[in-house]
TrEMBL record:
Source species taxonomy: Bacteria, Pseudomonadati, Pseudomonadota, Betaproteobacteria, Rhodocyclales
Gene, per the UniProt record: mutL
Domain of life the protein comes from: Bacteria
The protein's role, per its UniProt record: This protein is involved in the repair of mismatches in DNA. It is required for dam-dependent methyl-directed DNA mismatch repair. May act as a 'molecular matchmaker', a protein that promotes the formation of a stable complex between two or more DNA-binding proteins in an ATP-dependent manner without itself being part of a final effector complex.
Family: Belongs to the DNA mismatch repair MutL/HexB family.
Name the record gives this protein: DNA mismatch repair protein MutL
Organism: Oryzomicrobium terrae
All copies of domain DNA mismatch repair protein S5, residue ranges: 206-324
Length: 336
């Protein structure tokens, strides 16, 4: 016996959509961090409780949200980042789908407090259908997410131990922080500070997060073809300590897991890697936003290049060349 077709209630639609973006606390955190960065923040504070299940609070010093737009921030498919198809095709912000906050709000208790620089005080909103209340905040935005999945117990069962979820949260911070060296980060876990990153140069940030050894054991990658640029560090084939794979790829500042890029980088290491060493890299690809499609999956960790062959070749040669620099070569010979 079939039931009649009927439209789903709004909350349920958001809860279904949340399944795609809100996999675990770390995915909430990723969305909140991206929003803070899109707002032009220079310093972020992240507070976590119970691995981010009980609380994720992101405090930023970005541009803020005007009072009358607060409900829209929690509304599905509402965004300040794109307005039409052309914008979508050349989107340069980390977000653009206008659904993250609505999704998070559907599966947790979310509070949004924000103050535009010109506003006399901040406003606070807890429900898209509710009224904003005056609040105290110097400038910027505080997004507070509590009790993840409190209303969707089936999903809550999939959460791992707090320590595991906290580790995933920290990894989410790391991914965002690696590509935003000019932004300061402070992370606390259950009231204790666990990470503090000062604003600085990309190389310093890499050293802070991947270890000073990664910096000294790596060669610099830097190739510029105008429309395409790749920079970063790649482990020398003869690195003393290189048995653990460290692989971070960014496209226009966005952490991605891209098979094509991974393949190109891996190929560059082929036949020159010593012993049990693993190819490791932290590379940043900058490309005309119109030449890459980031709208492949709601989590946006996948991309599609318009000219994937050209990107593959460019990245491969850039790394191959970096690995063949005199220093890397000398090291290869010394080790042989
Ligand atoms: P998206 O980032 O795809 O636009 P979100 O649901 O993540 O969608 O956010 C909705 C809107 O809320 C954003 O377009 C932005 O205008 C606003 N917003 C969210 N977080 C912040 C923040 N930290 N600072 C300023 N504006 C924000
Ligand atoms: Mg967003």
């Amino acid at each position: 016996m079939r039931n009649p077709i009927r439209p789903l209630p709004d909350l349920l639609i958001s809860q279904i959509a949340a399944g795609e973006v809100v996999e675990r606390p770390a995915s909430v955190l990723k969305e909140l961090l991206e929003n803070a960065l899109d707002a032009g923040s220079t310093a972020l504070r992240i507070d976590l409780e119970e691995g981010g299940v009980a609380l994720i609070r992101v405090t930023d010093d970005g541009g803020g949200i005007p009072k009358d737009e607060l409900p829209l921030a929690l509304t599905r498919h509402a965004t300040s980042k794109i307005a039409n198809l052309l914008d979508l095709e050349r989107v340069a912000t980390l977000g653009f789908r206008g659904e993250a906050l609505a999704s998070v709000a559907a599966v947790s208790r979310l509070t949004l407090t924000s103050r535009e620089r010109s506003a006399p005080h901040a406003w606070k909103l807890t429900d898209a259908a509710g009224e904003a209340e005056p609040a105290a905040l110097l400038a910027g935005t505080v997004v507070e997410m509590r009790d993840l999945y409190y209303n969707t117990p089936a999903r809550r069962k999939f959460l791992k131990a707090a320590a595991t979820e906290a580790a995933h949260c920290l990894e989410a911070v790391k991914r965002v922080a690696l590509s935003h060296a000019d932004v300061a980060f402070t992370v606390t876990r259950d009231g204790r500070e666990i990470l503090r990153l000062a604003r600085g140069e990309p190389k310093q940030r890499i050293a802070d997060l991947l270890g000073a050894a990664f910096l000294t054991e790596s060669v610099e990658v830097d190739a510029d073809a105008g429309a395409l640029r790749v920079t970063g560090l790649a482990l020398r084939p003869t690195a003393v300590d290189g048995t653990k794979e460290v692989q971070y790829c960014f496209v226009n500042g966005r952490y991605v897991r891209d098979k094509l890029l991974q393949h190109a980088l891996r190929e560059a290491y082929r036949d020159i890697l010593h012993g049990s060493r693993q190819p490791s890299w932290c590379v940043f690809l900058d490309i005309d936003p119109a030449a890459v499609d980031v709208n492949v999956h709601p989590a946006k960790t996948e991309v599609r290049f318009r000219d994937s062959r050209a990107v593959h070749q460019f990245v491969f040669h850039a790394l191959r060349q970096a690995l063949a620099t005199p220093i890397a070569q000398a090291a290869v010979q010394a080790a042989a």
